[in-house]
Amino acid sequence: MRGLIAVLFLSLFITSCDEDIVINQQILNRIPTDSKIIIATNDVEHINELFRSSSLFKKVEKLERIQELKNASSFLMDYDLKGESLITISPEGKDKTAITLITQVLESKLIMPDSMKTHTYNKITFVEDNSHNTPYYYINYNGFHLASSSKLVIESLIRRNVDDYIFNEEFASIYNRTSNTDLSIYINGSHKDWLQGFLFKNYSSTSKTRGHWFQLEPRKTEHAFNVDGIFTYADSSQHFHAIFNGIKAQENKATAIIPSNVNQAVLFTFHDVKKLHQQVARYNNQAPKKLDKTFQLILDNSTEMAQVSLPKSDGVVFSLKPFEALFMDMDSATTAKFEYRNFTIYELREPVNTAGMQPLLPLNNYKFMTVIDEFLVLSTTATAPEDFIVSYQNKSGLKQQAWWEDLSNNISDSSTIMYFTSLSTILDKAKNEADIKILNKIASSDFPFMVSQYVHEQGYAHYHSSIPQIDASASGAGIVQSGSYKSPRKIIAGPFLFPNHLNGKHDVAFQDEDFNLHLISDTGKKYWSKELDALILGEISVVDGYKNGRKQLAFSTSKSVYYLDRNGKDVNSYPKTFKNGITQPLSVFDYDNNRNYRFLVTHDKSLTMLDINGKKVKGFAYKKGASIKSQPQHYRIGTRDYIAFAKADNTISLLSRTGKVRTKVTKKIALNGAMNFQKNLIKMLDNDQLIYLNPVTGKITNSGKQISENQHFTAAHGLEIIQANNKLVINGTKVELPYGTYSNAKIDQLRGNKFIHLIDSGANLVYVMNKRGEMTDSFPVYGKGKTAMAQSKSNYLTTLDGDDVIIYKF
User: Fold this and answer.
1) d(CA 142, CA 358)
2) Is the pLDDT of residue 206 over 70?
3) Alpha-carbon distance 443 to 441, whole Å?
4) Paired residues of 462 in beta bridges
5) Which of 762, 758, 689, 754 has its CA nearest to residue 728?
6) In the list 140, 429, 568, 781, which could disulfide-bond 528, CB 3.0-4.6 Å?
7) Phi-psi sector, 752: left (phi>0), alpha (psi -120 to 50), beta
8) Which band of pLDDT confidence, cut at 50, 70 and 90, is reported for residue 12?
9) What whole-number distance in Å separates Cα of residue 210 and Cα of residue 143?
10) Of 24, 339, 278, residue with least CA distance to 162
11) pLDDT, tens only, 748-773
12) 216 - beta bridge partners?
């Protein structure tokens, strides 16, 4: 039955009390031995309704174990339950599963030996029904109807003396308190990873237990699958959850600093460190031992600690109590310190040893410490804190994700234990190759985490769990730092974004002081390096010379024109070196948008036109004049092409494809800055006057706008910006950013969306706005150097922090 299988699968991920009610103890006495999951319901349709729309279940219903359970439970569709009923899942043999139904006697299921296949056990006859893919067995016996996918279970219930049998006292207790709901799911909580092992057939053993039983009530909302309930345990050194008896839950704050790419994070809050330490020692069957001095000091000044596992590093985070001055003298406690993004990473003279707090924290010696506002991070490497600093600065922690608002409505602000487990971490448990293929198709961007929390009382805990599903309309919200790369040499050109046709993402290129060009992935993985002969001039152009979607890089230095494939290999006869040098960035033209590219090379007063094979283009003949002082640009109006550039004699050239003058501009123009083509006009500054040049007529119109020395003008993609530091006028609309020291604004268009980006070099922040000057979600982010933007599967922004390349996607 589809709904029952969904219960099992979602219980894997989600792994207040009512007044006592009168229950039928006899129904409990018929639960099969070793049942691990028990579903109490009076209507099978309650389960079907809950999971019918589960998109997560639809993605996993082909798993091997799911298919086994689906077949084993198919007989439940024959039943229309009307009274108190239990459905149980119990192990059978080494790796089999039995599904059993216990309900009131059903007259419709009377045995008619002459027309049915029957079996007799201990002189009692029961039926075998083969109307489904898997046979099942049933009997009305001693006041109950029993049906099971297992013949052995039916036989064991026939021989059971129910008057003397007690299935499980702890289960009877929790069932007695909670069974008055339409649907309750009970899961044996003894072994931490039993459900994962069962589903993926990959069991692990442990001598310690978590507790007794979960009672769960599923609840579906628009963007999540939620579960509420309780979890019971004994006040025993053998039960992990007994550690938190009497520990008052505090606010979970570390979610603001834990990066969103975390594999797993476990957060613990506490109000009484001494009591927590004593109960941890009891769990470990030890007398409390004195904690490391610095460790004790940190705990005394904290309300929360979290062990955090990231893809490339691990760390321990503490949420600190309010303080005016840090409780430690860091100068005397440290041997060295490093600055990273305006925060200090300290190397400790004596590492912090966490002995005495296992299993809440891993046993380790932490040599590095970082204080990030109200948080303290311990790590074993100097680079590990960088991930937390990035997450906090960029406001890209768990708490800032698009799904958090919906999640916060379904969980408590405070808990004693809180788990964040990425879907990929859970699915790593799978071993079956067919299962792995199915699971790999589940996008973590759709189901990023399983979140669960406990609020402990005495002997039980309130339990909340949620599996957020990201709404496609909101999935673009927020920004993450996807990667970074530390260049060992000074960066002198870039970063440049380059599309990767292999994975649909963008890579980043940059050049160091040794003139080496490097290409790295969006996660910061280095692909290759190539030695060039000089500094790259201007930007790197992206071309598709083979017209097959596999892109290449085209650019020039002061000596040569380079044309490289994505592996850094030279294409055709390139590079082309010119004895008379190159004085402007390479201009790449695709006149008719048919990928028949032309490379226009500037040598002071002359021009050379090349095709992608490195041959000079016949028919292009430019007559030398004054020195060319701007990069030649290509514009098209109607069917006519214009190649435009400024010269040192204050003239503007407008050429045809052949290099001959197409339109003569008679007025002298002292170009200040770049040419900007918009609405069939070339907008530019003549000294401090904003003018518009019509390429068709050569006529110049004065806009009446004067741009002073402390202002910057740019225009592109239908936007015109006049900028005076933090004050921008965008198409006539005034926008004011926080006071700072800003770089010149740049305009990019990414598939119809127009973005304006600039850097506040004083605060080291990158601002990205839409065409109206409204800030893009989650911006500003950290950055110091040049910015570049592009779009593939995501929007990409890359910038520099000194000689570090930073890659964001949003």
Assistant:
1) 50
2) no
3) 6
4) 230, 455
5) 758
6) 568
7) left
8) very low
9) 36
10) 24
11) 999 889 999 999 999 999 999 999 99
12) 185, 229
- On whether the CB atoms of residues 380 and 310 are closer than 8 A, the answer is no
- Three-state secondary-structure class, residue 608: strand
Q: Among the listed ranges 73-82, 286-295, 366-375, 730-739, which one has the minimum average pLDDT value?
A: 73-82
What's the DSSP call for residue 400? G
Across all residues in the chain, what is the average pLDDT?
89
Reply yes or no on whether the pLDDT at 197 is more than 60.
yes
pLDDT at residue 116, as a whole number? 78
Gyration radius of the chain over CA positions: 35
Tell me the three state secondary structure of residue 343. Answer: strand
The most distant pair of C-alpha atoms in the chain lies apart, rounded to whole Å, by 115
Quick one: average pLDDT of 759-788?
Answer: 93
**Reduced to 3 states, what is the DSSP secondary structure of residue 494?**
strand
Cβ-contact 320, 302 below 8 angstroms:
yes
Dist. CA 408–CA 303, nearest whole Å: 20
Overall pTM > 0.90: no
pLDDT of the residue at 17 = 33
Question: Tens digit of pLDDT for each residue in 377-413?
Answer: 999 999 999 999 998 988 889 998 888 888 888 889 9
DSSP 702-760: EEEEE--TT-EEEEETTEEEEEETTEEEETTEEEEPPSS-BPPPEEEEETTEEEEEEEE
The string of pLDDT tens digits covering residues 332-345 is 899 999 999 989 99
Q: How far apart, in whole angstroms, are the C-alpha atoms of residue 681 and residue 255?
A: 51
Q: Using alpha carbons, select from 55, 60, 84, 80 the residue that is nearest to residue 70.
A: 60
**Cα(582)–Cα(561) distance, rounded to whole angstroms?**
9
Half-sphere exposure of 740 (CA within 13 A, CB side): 18
For 38, the token pair is 């028990």
Cα–Cα distance for residue pair 355/635, rounded to 1 Å: 69
Q: Is the pLDDT of residue 24 over 60?
A: no
Q: Which two tokens stand for residue 663?
A: 């339109």
Give the model's pLDDT for residue 777. 85
Task: Tally the C-alpha atoms within 13 A of residue 522's C-alpha that lie toward its C-beta.
Answer: 25
Helix (H, G, I), strand (E, B) or coil at 281: helix
- Amino acid 380: pLDDT: 95
Distance of CA 404 to the CA centre of its chain: 12
Of the candidates 716, 769, 771, the residue with the CA atom closest to the CA atom of residue 742: 769
> Side chain identity at 668, as an amino acid letter?
K
- Closest by CA to 263, choosing from 440, 424, 404, is 424
Best CA proximity match to 43, nearest among 123, 101, 125: 101
Where does residue 414 rank: exposed (0-12), middle (13-18), buried (19+ CB within 10 A)? middle
| Distance of alpha carbon 73 from alpha carbon 7, whole angstroms | 12
Q: Which two tokens stand for residue 222?
A: 């628009």
Buried b (16+ CB within 10 A) or exposed e, 640-671: ebbbbbbbeeebbbbbebebeebbebeeebeb
pLDDT digits (tens, 9 = 90+) for 447-470: 788 899 999 999 999 999 988 877
